[in-house]
């Protein structure tokens, strides 16, 4: 059953009415095809209008939509013969970060994704996409393994941020994130990162330090959540919508700021409306990025990657 966001109320009413009429049509001999077509056209038009002028706060809600495809959906949709690799070889396995090897377009690759979970049980299993230090250390291990076997790396990011619990701090959360960024910068093979939902704080940048950073059209990427920002600046979490605008966290803002490289278009209504189409578009975008990066020599690749991040924030944006 489709879940609607608060600002989609008008569309929800139309689509519910369409569902009711479809049930009536099946259970009776009444021909209401014309009325159904008119309602579908009206709902589609309404949806297009809504999504053509989303506010930053509405984009936050779309990025967090529970029915958006998650990292495992992309892995199962894009990667053949995926073999998950577990553990950081230091302390434990972290289920928020999924990593392993597989075939992408007949090319062997390493894949690392942050998984949020699709229902309550899987969300608890994956800790709502909030990784502990062990997860980032597992990612470091896989990045180094990819270097040994000359495998390109795909990163799939969807997290509200790294796990802020006391246990994570005791186990070196800050060091693990910093080391992940360093490991990405030192990687000898191409890295393409895709922000598929929410890219929150250091938990996201730990895996978004890449040669190419792609974002889905309605995903977000920010140093802090709007709610946390609102609580700090206004001491009132209810000002999150205002904070979302100030943070410039949308894909469109970040492309203008040159913090990402490309926006991947979503179906009207968001990725949750047609996951298969979105997964295919992400696959194509990654393939194009890899083809471009394959032409760059290893030493030049590392140098360009470092310079890319050193240049961020230095140019004045009008």
List the helices and strands and how they pair.
Layout: H1 9-27, H2 33-52, H3 56-63, H4 71-78, E1 79-84, E2 97-104, E3 107-114, H5 120-125, H6 133-148, E4 153-159, H7 166-170, H8 173-186, E5 191-200, H9 201-208, E6 212-216, E7 220-222, H10 226-233, H11 240-247, H12 251-256, E8 262-264, H13 275-293, H14 298-310
Parallel strand pairs: 3-4, 4-5, 5-6, 5-7, 6-8
Antiparallel strand pairs: 1-2, 2-3
- How much strand content do the residues show? 15-25%
Coarse morphology: globular
Number of domains: 2
Structural class: alpha/beta
Q: Let me know the CATH homologous superfamily of the largest domain.
A: 2-enoyl-CoA Hydratase, Chain A, domain 1
Number of strands: 8
Helix percentage range: 40-55%
Sequence of secondary-structure elements: HHHHEEEHHEHHEHEEHHHEHH
Round the mean pLDDT to the nearest integer and report it: 92
Note the main attributes of this structure.
8 strands; 318 residues; alpha/beta; globular
Explained architecture:
Strands 1, 2, 3, 4, 5, 6, 7 and 8 form an 8-stranded mixed beta sheet that branches. Helix 1 runs antiparallel to helix 2 (33-52), helix 6 (133-148) packs parallel to helix 8 and helix 10 (226-233) crosses helix 11 (240-247). This protein is α/β, with parallel strands linked by helices and 318 residues long. The N and C termini lie far apart (44 Å). The chain has 2 domains: 6-53; 61-310, 2-enoyl-CoA Hydratase, Chain A, domain 1 (Alpha-Beta Complex). It has 14 helices and 8 strands. The chain has helices at 9-27, 33-52, 56-63, 71-78, 120-125, 133-148, 166-170, 173-186, 201-208, 226-233, 240-247, 251-256, 275-293, 298-310; strands at 79-84, 97-104, 107-114, 153-159, 191-200, 212-216, 220-222, 262-264. Helix 9 (201-208) links the parallel strand 5 and strand 6. It is globular.
